[in-house]
Amino acid sequence: MIAGYTAVEIAVAVAAGVLALVLGLAGRRPSDLSLAGPALIEVLLIAQLVVAIVAPGTGNRPTGNPVEFFAYLLSALVIPPAAVVWALMERTRWAVVVVGISCLAIAVMLVRMQIIWTVQHA
Amino acid sequence: MSGSSVTTRPARPKTSGPGRTLIVFYFIMTIAALARSIFEIVVHLGTAPFAYLLSLFAGIVYLVATIALITPGRRAFRIAATAITIELVGVLVVGTISVADFGLFPFSGDRSTVWAYYGLEYLLIPLALPILGLLFLRSQRRVFAEA
């Protein structure tokens, strides 16, 4: 993992999460604005997957267990599409709240991924 | 046409509205607890078997609660109420034990469990969930009975 890139991902996930939570609790229905966050996060996570596969070949190896790392990353990759699909199926304010929670959950998972890669068993 | 489709649609108001947020939290905790405990049990069960089996138990309780919350009907209501009560007792007992003796579930060295320190590792969500869950069930009693 690349620390700077992880920081960007976490910042985007937190910002998108807070935005969706605020919009949802304010009573807004799913919109391009609230769904752009998870879409952007998904793109960043796909790039993260490529980085995680390529990095060990360039000498940037995980110190922790790679299985645990990829369990987190693959779970994180599934969350934004699931949240968006649910939001489009039922267009209520609570769908936007759910999108916000899922973005924040991804931020937590990214912190854990960075710990597994750089701190665990180091 | 539209009138009949409304009446034949199964009544499942629990999965919409604010209850949906609760179900999402239950779902997240199910995945977190099950994935963590299964990974720990498969990779290094010998490190702290009791802590890992407690995490697995917590994960199963969350799974049962999640499914019961989504399912309509009286039986699902009772199962959800039972699972969430077990969850509340579990997080209070395990949390209190962990605080009473810090050596049992130390933070370092992968020897902790989901409910240790009342779920501090999970932002205390495990402490808040069963309380909100029971309040939610109480508010939904009629919905469950009618479904």
What is the typical, i.e. mean, pLDDT of chain A? Answer: 93
The major pleated sheet of chain B works out as:
none
Report how far the terminal alpha carbons of chain A are from each other.
14 Å
Figure out the total of helices of chain A.
4
Number of DSSP strand runs of chain A: 0
Oligomer: heterodimer
State the share of residues found in helices of chain B, binned by percent: over 70%
Rounded to an integer, what's the Rg of chain B over CA atoms?
18 Å
Sheet-strand content of chain B, in percent, reads under 5%
Identify the overall geometry of chain B: elongated
The most extensive contact between chains is: A-B, 15 and 13 residues
What report would you give on this structure?
The complex is a heterodimer of chains A (122) and B (147). Chain A has helices at residues 3-25, 32-54, 66-89, 93-118. Chain A is mainly α. Chain A has one domain (3-118). The longest helix of chain B has 27 residues, at 18-44. The model of chain B is unreliable at 1-10 (pLDDT under 50). Chain B has one domain (16-146). Chain B has helices at residues 2-8, 18-44, 49-70, 74-100, 125-139, 141-146. The two termini of chain B are 22 Å apart. The A-B interface holds A 65, 67-68, 71, 75, 90, 92, 94-95, 97-98, 101-102, 105, 108 and B 16-18, 20-21, 24-25, 28, 31, 35, 39, 43, 123.
